[in-house]
C-alpha cells in the first residue's frame, strides 16, 4: 500500500471495508455495481489522462515553488482592490479553521447560530456605514452587486415607468471599468440601455429609471452627490451608489445623501487580495425594497421557548419559489469572507475603523504634498485615499517597478496612486523617491503624516456608527479569540460529522489543499498586477483550465464565474452570443425539465430567455416525448435545454444521448448543469453525453469548501465552437476572440481558491479522480441498501441503483403527524446536519454521502435514520408531544429543573450510544420562521437594548 498517496487520505472507505459494502449492496464487485448503475453507451471508451498524482508533500513543495514565481510588489493600483491587513486572530481562527470553512449554508438555523450571528454583525456593519435601512448577508463582488442594484431598481420602477417602458440606466463615467463591463453584460438580455456620462452635466429624460454613481470615483475624486440625487428623485429616478466601505468611516454616507441602494466590496476589511477573490460584496437598500432584494438576509426571530434565534429570512426561499420570475439567484453569497469582514469590524470597532480611514487619508495627503513640492500636479480637488498625478506614465512605471511598486496608469500622462492600511512611512518615502527620480530632483524624507484634510467639510462624516456592544467589546486578541470560539461551538460543520446534502456534495476539504492559501505569494497579489508579476498564478490557472478540459472532454474553460449561479448565467450568455454570431439572435427559448434546480429558470430569465418547462415521468426522468414535442414546436426559436446529469433525482438517465441529439436536431444547444459532476468524473463527461457547455461547482465536485454558503466558483467548460465567446475583462484581457463582456469583477474570478481545486486534481490524478467517483456511487448505494430497511427510496435507475445520491420519501409519515422537517430537526439530536430537505420533491430528503466519508460514519448516519424511523412508528397524529416534534433538544432544556415530556431526557439527548461520545448541542430550540418574517429585524439591536438589559 502506498501510504503517502493522497487518494488514501481523501477517500473514506478502506480496502478492507469494500467486500462488506458490496455484500450489503448485493454485488460482487465494483464492476458489477457500475454495470448496474451506468448506461453503457455513456461510459468513456478510455481513461482520461492527467499528470501523475502528487503526494501531499510533493504538492505542497510544488505549490510553494509556483507561488515563488509570483512577485509580491507593494500594490497601490486601487480600482476597487486594496491590500488589507488580515488580523492574525481572524486568519488563524476563521480563515484557517475547518469549523468555519467547512460549514454549509445555514438553512438549518438551529445548528448555525454562530455563523448567523457573525453574518448579522456583517449586515449591521454595512447598514450603519452606508446609512441604509437593510442589508443582505453578502454578494459575490462589487461589480455583480452593482448589477443586482440595477436589477432591483428596474424591478421597483413606478407604475408609469413600467407602463412607458422606461429602460435607461445612467452610469457615471467615474464607475470602475470592471463594474461597467458587468453592467453591460447583465443589462443587455433584459433590454436595459446603459448610458455612460458625466453626472455633473447630465440631464434626465422620461425613459430613465435609475442611475449608478461611484463614491469615491475610480481615480479617487470625491463628489458631493446630494444635488444629483435630489434632481433624480424629483423625476422619480432612483439612485444606487457603489461605495468604498472604508471611506464611509470618514465620508458622509450615501444613505445620508438620499441613495436608494448602496453596493460595494468589503475586501479591504481584512480580506486577502487573492488575485481577485474571493471577497464579500455588500448590498444595502431601503426596507421598502426588501422583497426585491437579492441574496440572503439574516433576520432575528425566536425559538419555541420565545428565546432570540437567528435564521435566513424572506427571499432566501422566495428566489427559489419564483423560479423564472426571480430577479436574482440565491447562490450568490461569500459567507466565509463576510464573516471575516464582519469580525474585522468587531475587532477594530468604530474608533479603530475611523483611525484606519483617517490614516489612509493622511497618507494620501502626505504623498500629494511632497509630490507637489517636486513639481507634479495632483488632479483630484477632493479625495479620500487615492490621488491622480500628472506625469509621464512610462517613466514612472519603469522606476516604480524597479522598486517593486505598482501604480495604476490611467493613460500616458496620468498616474493613479491608491493608499491602504499597509502603507508605511518608509513606503511613502519610496513613492516620493520614485517621482523624485523621474523628475531628476532630490527630496527630504518625511517622518510624519500630514494633518491637512482634502475632504470638503460638508462631506465629512458627522454621524456615529457601530455603537452596539459587540463592536465595542472584543478588541484584545483574547477577547476576540474567545468570541469566535463561542460562535464556532454553535455551528455544526464537517469537522464534527458528515453533511449528507444531496446536490451539494459536502466532501472533505483536505488540509494540504488549504495550506497554500495562507502564503502571501498567493494571497497578496492584485488582480490587475502586470502579467510578469503573476507567472505562478497564470501557470496554475491555465493548468487548472486544461485539467478541467480533460475531465469534461471540452475544448475551453473560463474560471471567471465566482459562483455556481454565475456559471449558469455565463454558460447561457455564451450560448446567446453563439446564436447571435450566426444571425440567429431570435433563438430565446430555454427548455427546462420540471425537476431542474430552482436556479436554472432564474438564470435563464436573467439571460433574457423564455422558459418552457418540460414534464418529468413518474420514474423521475425527463419525459423524452414531451421534450421532443416542445423542441419541435419551438425549433425556430429554440436556444437551449438545461439539464442536470445525473438527474436531480439521482439517476443516470439512459435516454440522455437521445435527448441531446434531438435538441441539436432542432437548432438548440445543450447546457449541462454541473451540480452532479461528482458522479461523472473519470467515468463519463459532458462532451460524451452530447452537451455543448457545462458549469462546474468547484465548491462541490472539486473540493473548495462551502464556507457556510460561499466561497463558490462556477467555471464553465465549452465545446470548440463556443470557445471564442468566453468572457473577458476590461482591464486584463482574457477569454475568447469574440468574448462576451465580464461576468464578474476580476479576470479570473475568485482565483485564490482555484488553488484548492488545482491541488485536489493534482494530488488525486486520473486514477484517484475515477476512484473518487466510483466510491461516491458505492457509498450512495450502500446507504440506499441500509436505509431501504425503513424508508422508501423514491427513484432508482433502470437496474435499481442510485447514482451518487438518492431521495427518500417521507410523505407517508404525515399519517403519523410527522413532517420531513421534524426528521431534519431530530437528526440534530443525533449529531447530524439534515440532508437536503424537500428538494427536488416536497416532503423528501435527498442524501449524498460523497467519497470522503468512511464506512463507520456512513453506518452512524444510517443508524440514526433507522432509529428515527422507529420513533416515527411510535408517534401518533393526535399526540404531538413527542421526541420528533420537540426536536431539537437543547442543553438548557435537558438540564432544566423540571422535565414534563412523556419520554426520558436520555432518549431526547442520547438516542444512540455513539452520540454520548461526541455530543453536539443545538444552541436554540426550533426556530419560528413565520415570526421572523412578520417581525423582520436584520441588524444588531440598538445600543439602548443593551443599556436596558
Q: What does this protein look like?
A:
By secondary structure, this protein is α/β, with parallel strands linked by helices. It has 33 helices and 26 strands. The longest helix has 39 residues, at 335-373. The N and C termini lie far apart (62 Å).
Give a quick summary of the entry.
It contains 33 helices and 26 strands.
Features:
single chain; 949 residues; alpha/beta; 26 strands; 38% helix; 12% strand; globular; disordered C terminus
Biggest β-sheet description: 7 strands, mixed
Structural class: alpha/beta
Strand order of the largest sheet: 2-8-7-6-5-3-4
Q: Radius of gyration in whole Å, from Cα?
A: 28 Å
Extended strand count: 26
User: Average pLDDT across residues?
Assistant: 95
List the uncertain runs: 943-949
End-to-end gap? 62 Å
- Our estimate of the beta-strand percent is 5-15%
Quaternary organisation of the protein chains? single chain
Give the helix proportion (percent range). 25-40%
Output the number of helix runs.
33
- What would you call the shape? globular
Write the layout of secondary structure elements.
Elements: H1 6-10, H2 18-25, H3 30-37, H4 56-68, E1 74-75, H5 88-95, H6 98-101, H7 113-130, E2 134-135, H8 142-155, H9 159-163, E3 168-172, H10 177-187, E4 193-197, E5 208-215, H11 226-234, E6 238-243, H12 254-257, E7 261-265, E8 281-285, E9 297-302, E10 308-313, H13 315-322, H14 335-373, E11 377-378, E12 386-390, H15 393-402, E13 405-406, E14 408-411, E15 414-418, H16 425-439, H17 477-488, H18 511-514, H19 520-523, H20 535-552, E16 556-558, H21 564-581, E17 589-593, H22 599-606, E18 610-614, H23 624-633, E19 638-644, H24 656-665, E20 669-674, H25 686-689, E21 693-696, E22 716-718, H26 751-787, E23 792-793, E24 806-809, H27 820-829, E25 836-837, E26 844-847, H28 855-874, H29 891-894, H30 905-909, H31 913-917, H32 929-934, H33 943-948
Helix pairs in contact: 2-26, 4-20, 5-14, 5-17, 7-14, 7-17, 8-10, 14-16, 15-16, 20-26, 21-22, 23-24, 26-28
Amino acid at each position: 500500500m502506498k501510504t503517502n498517496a493522497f487518494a488514501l487520505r481523501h477517500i473514506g472507505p478502506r480496502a478492507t471495508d469494500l467486500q462488506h459494502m458490496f455484500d450489503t449492496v448485493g454485488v460482487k464487485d465494483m464492476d458489477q455495481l457500475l454495470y448496474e448503475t451506468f448506461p453503457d453507451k455513456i461510459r468513456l471508451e478510455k481513461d482520461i489522462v492527467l499528470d501523475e498524482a502528487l503526494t501531499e508533500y510533493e504538492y505542497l513543495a510544488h505549490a510553494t515553488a509556483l507561488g515563488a514565481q509570483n512577485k509580491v510588489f507593494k500594490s497601490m493600483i486601487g480600482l476597487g482592490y486594496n491590500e488589507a491587513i488580515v488580523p492574525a486572530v481572524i486568519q488563524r481562527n476563521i480563515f484557517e479553521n475547518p469549523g468555519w470553512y467547512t460549514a454549509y449554508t445555514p438553512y438549518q438555523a438551529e445548528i448555525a447560530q454562530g455563523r448567523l450571528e457573525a453574518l448579522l454583525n456583517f449586515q449591521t456593519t454595512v447598514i450603519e456605514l452606508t446609512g441604509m435601512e437593510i442589508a443582505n448577508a453578502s454578494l459575490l463582488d462589487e461589480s455583480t452587486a452593482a448589477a443586482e442594484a440595477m436589477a432591483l431598481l428596474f424591478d421597483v420602477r413606478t407604475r408609469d415607468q413600467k407602463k412607458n417602458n422606461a429602460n435607461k440606466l445612467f452610469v457615471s463615467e467615474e464607475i470602475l471599468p470592471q463594474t461597467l463591463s458587468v453592467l453591460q453584460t447583465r443589462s443587455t438580455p433584459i433590454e436595459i440601455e446603459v448610458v455612460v456620462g458625466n453626472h455633473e452635466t447630465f440631464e434626465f429624460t422620461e425613459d430613465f429609471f435609475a442611475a449608478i454613481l461611484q463614491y469615491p470615483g475610480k481615480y479617487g475624486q470625491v463628489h458631493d452627490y446630494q444635488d444629483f440625487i435630489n434632481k433624480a428623485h424629483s423625476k422619480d429616478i432612483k439612485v444606487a451608489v457603489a461605495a468604498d466601505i472604508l471611506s464611509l468611516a470618514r465620508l458622509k454616507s450615501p444613505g445620508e445623501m438620499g441613495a436608494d441602494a448602496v453596493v460595494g466590496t468589503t475586501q479591504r476589511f481584512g480580506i486577502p487580495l487573492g488575485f481577485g477573490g474571493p471577497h464579500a460584496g455588500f448590498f444595502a437598500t431601503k426596507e421598502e425594497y426588501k422583497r426585491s432584494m437579492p441574496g440572503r438576509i439574516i433576520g432575528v426571530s425566536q425559538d419555541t421557548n420565545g428565546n432570540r434565534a437567528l435564521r435566513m429570512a424572506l427571499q432566501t426561499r422566495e428566489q427559489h419559489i419564483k423560479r423564472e420570475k426571480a430577479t436574482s439567484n440565491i447562490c450568490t453569497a461569500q459567507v466565509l469572507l463576510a464573516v471575516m469582514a464582519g469580525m474585522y469590524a468587531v475587532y477594530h470597532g468604530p474608533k479603530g475603523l475611523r483611525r484606519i480611514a483617517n490614516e489612509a487619508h493622511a497618507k494620501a495627503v502626505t504623498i500629494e504634498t511632497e509630490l507637489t513640492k517636486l513639481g507634479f500636479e495632483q488632479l483630484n480637488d477632493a479625495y479620500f485615499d487615492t490621488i491622480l498625478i500628472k506625469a509621464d506614465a512610462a517613466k514612472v512605471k519603469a522606476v516604480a517597478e524597479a522598486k517593486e511598486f505598482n501604480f495604476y496608469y490611467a493613460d500616458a500622462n496620468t498616474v493613479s496612486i491608491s493608499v491602504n492600511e499597509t502603507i508605511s512611512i518608509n513606503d511613502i518615502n519610496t513613492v516620493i523617491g520614485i517621482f523624485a527620480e523621474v523628475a531628476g530632483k532630490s527630496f527630504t524624507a518625511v517622518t510624519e503624516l500630514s494633518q491637512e484634510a482634502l475632504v470638503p467639510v460638508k462631506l465629512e462624516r458627522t454621524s456615529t456608527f457601530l455603537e452596539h456592544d459587540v463592536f465595542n467589546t472584543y478588541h484584545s486578541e483574547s477577547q476576540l479569540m474567545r468570541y469566535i470560539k463561542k460562535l464556532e461551538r454553535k455551528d455544526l460543520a464537517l469537522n464534527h460529522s458528515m453533511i449528507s446534502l444531496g446536490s451539494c456534495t459536502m466532501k472533505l476539504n483536505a488540509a494540504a489543499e488549504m495550506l497554500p492559501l495562507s502564503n502571501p505569494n498567493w494571497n497578496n497579489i492584485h488582480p490587475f498586477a502586470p502579467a510578469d508579476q503573476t507567472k505562478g498564478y497564470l501557470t496554475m490557472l491555465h493548468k487548472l483550465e486544461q485539467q478541467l478540459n480533460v475531465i469534461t472532454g471540452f475544448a475551453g474553460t473560463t474560471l471567471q464565474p465566482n459562483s455556481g449561479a454565475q456559471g449558469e448565467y455565463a454558460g447561457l450568455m455564451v450560448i446567446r452570443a453563439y446564436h447571435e454570431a450566426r444571425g440567429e439572435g431570435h433563438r430565446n427559448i430555454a427548455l427546462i425539465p420540471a425537476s431542474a434546480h430552482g436556479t436554472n429558470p432564474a438564470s435563464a430569465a436573467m439571460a433574457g430567455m423564455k422558459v418552457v418547462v418540460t414534464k418529468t415521468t413518474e420514474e423521475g426522468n425527463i419525459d423524452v416525448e414531451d421534450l421532443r414535442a416542445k423542441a419541435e414546436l419551438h425549433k425556430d426559436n429554440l436556444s437551449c435545454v438545461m439539464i442536470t446529469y445525473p438527474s436531480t433525482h439521482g439517476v443516470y438517465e439512459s435516454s440522455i444521448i437521445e435527448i441531446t441529439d434531438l435538441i441539436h436536431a432542432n437548432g438548440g444547444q445543450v447546457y449541462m448543469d454541473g451540480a452532479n459532476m461528482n458522479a461523472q468524473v473519470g467515468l463519463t463527461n459532458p462532451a460524451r453525453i452530447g452537451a455543448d457547455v457545462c458549469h462546474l461547482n468547484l465548491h462541490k465536485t472539486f473540493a473548495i469548501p462551502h464556507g457556510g454558503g460561499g466561497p463558490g466558483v462556477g467555471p464553465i467548460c465549452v465545446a470548440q465552437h463556443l470557445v471564442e465567446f468566453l468572457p473577458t475583462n476590461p482591464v486584463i484581457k482574457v477569454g475568447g476572440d469574440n468574448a462576451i463582456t465580464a461576468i464578474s469583477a476580476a479576470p479570473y474570478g475568485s482565483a485564490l481558491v482555484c488553488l484548492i481545486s488545482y491541488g485536489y486534481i493534482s494530488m488525486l490524478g486520473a486514477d484517484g479522480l475515477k476512484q473518487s467517483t466510483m466510491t461516491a456511487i458505492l457509498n450512495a448505494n450502500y446507504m440506499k441498501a441500509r436505509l431501504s430497511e425503513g424508508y422508501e427510496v423514491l427513484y432508482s435507475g433502470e437496474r435499481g441503483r442510485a447514482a451518487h445520491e438518492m431521495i427518500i420519501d417521507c410523505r407517508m409519515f404525515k399519517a403519523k403527524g410527522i413532517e420531513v422537517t421534524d426528521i431534519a430537526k431530530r437528526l440534530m439530536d443525533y449529531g447530524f446536519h439534515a440532508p437536503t430537505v424537500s428538494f427536488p420533491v416536497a416532503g423528501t430528503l435527498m442524501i449524498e454521502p460523497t467519497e470522503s466519508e468512511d464506512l463507520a460514519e456512513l453506518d452512524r448516519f444510517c443508524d440514526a435514520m433507522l432509529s428515527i424511523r422507529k420513533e416515527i412508528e411510535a408517534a401518533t397524529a393526535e399526540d404531538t408531544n413527542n421526541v420528533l416534534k420537540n426536536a431539537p433538544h437543547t442543553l438548557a432544556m435537558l438540564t432544566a429543573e423540571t422535565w414534563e415530556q412523556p419520554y426520558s431526557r436520555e432518549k431526547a439527548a442520547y438516542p444512540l450510544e455513539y452520540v454520548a461520545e461526541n455530543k453536539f448541542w443545538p444552541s436554540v430550540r426550533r426556530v419560528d420562521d413565520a415570526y421572523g418574517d412578520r417581525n423582520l429585524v436584520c441588524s444588531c439591536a440598538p445600543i439602548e437594548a443593551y443599556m436596558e438589559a
